[in-house]
């Protein structure tokens, strides 16, 4: 299993969104990206997490960041989840957990990918990562704090929790 280190280049990826479009890390070059892995569309904690990202989405945009969620759910599941909860950001399909593997996201109870969030700077370096299976919203505030620091500092690696 890959172990992602703060300061390293973010692993490159291309994956399908809920509409079947290819989305790549390079699409976000020059922007800050919050990449969050979550276990399952519609589960209570994942719904709370995604809705918290939705509710704070404008703060991310104003800070110059974009948000992308990733799970092993199907494109149809993502589309329904996005529509039901009015999510304004992209959800990517990680069919065979390939993205999770690239980012070192372990499986929970050996089944579903864990909950892990990465903040990737404008140069596509990992500047923050956090995880927490049962707390789906704490890392959202942490991510906003990291982005604020990025905007006011020299984009040095910031933290790992």
Short characterization:
This protein is of the alpha/beta class and about 160 residues long. It is about 30% helix and about 25% strand.
What gyration radius follows from the Cα positions, in whole Å?
14 Å
Main sheet attributes: strand count, strand direction, barrel closure: 6 strands, mixed
CATH class of the domain at 41-124 and 133-152: Alpha Beta
Main sheet: which strands, in order across? 5-4-3-8-9-10
User: What's the helix-strand series?
Assistant: EEEHHEHEHEEEEHE
Overall geometric form: globular
In words, what does this structure look like?
With 161 residues, the chain is α/β, with parallel strands linked by helices. The chain has a domain at 41-124 and 133-152: Glutaredoxin. 30% of the residues lie in helices and 25% in strands. The chain has five helices and ten strands, in the order βββααβαβαββββαβ. The chain has helices spanning 44-55, 57-62, 75-85, 98-102, 138-152; strands at residues 14-16, 22-24, 32-37, 65-71, 90-93, 107-108, 112-113, 116-120, 126-131, 159-160. A six-stranded mixed sheet has the order 5-4-3-8-9-10. The protein is globular and about 40 Å long. It is an enzyme of class 1 (oxidoreductase). It catalyses: a hydroperoxide + [thioredoxin]-dithiol = an alcohol + [thioredoxin]-disulfide + H2O.
SSE inventory with pairings:
Elements: E1 14-16, E2 22-24, E3 32-37, H1 44-55, H2 57-62, E4 65-71, H3 75-85, E5 90-93, H4 98-102, E6 107-108, E7 112-113, E8 116-120, E9 126-131, H5 138-152, E10 159-160
Parallel strand pairs: 3-4, 4-5, 9-10
Antiparallel strand pairs: 1-2, 3-8, 6-7, 8-9
């Amino acid at each position: 299993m890959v172990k992602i280190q703060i300061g390293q280049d973010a692993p490159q990826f291309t994956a399908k969104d809920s509409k079947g479009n290819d989305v790549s890390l390079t699409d976000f070059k020059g922007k800050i990206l919050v990449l969050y892995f979550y276990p399952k569309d519609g589960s209570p904690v994942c719904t709370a997490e995604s809705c918290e990202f939705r509710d704070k989405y404008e703060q991310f945009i104003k800070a110059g960041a974009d948000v992308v969620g990733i799970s092993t759910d199907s494109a149809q599941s993502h589309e329904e989840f996005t529509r039901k909860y009015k999510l304004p950001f992209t959800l990517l399909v990680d069919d065979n957990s390939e993205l999770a593997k690239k980012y070192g996201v372990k499986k929970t109870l050996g089944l579903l990918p864990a909950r892990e969030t990465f903040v990737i700077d404008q140069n596509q370096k990992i500047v923050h990562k956090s995880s927490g299976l049962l707390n789906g919203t704490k890392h959202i505030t942490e991510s906003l704090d990291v982005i604020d620091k990025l905007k006011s500092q020299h984009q040095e690696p910031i933290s790992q929790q």
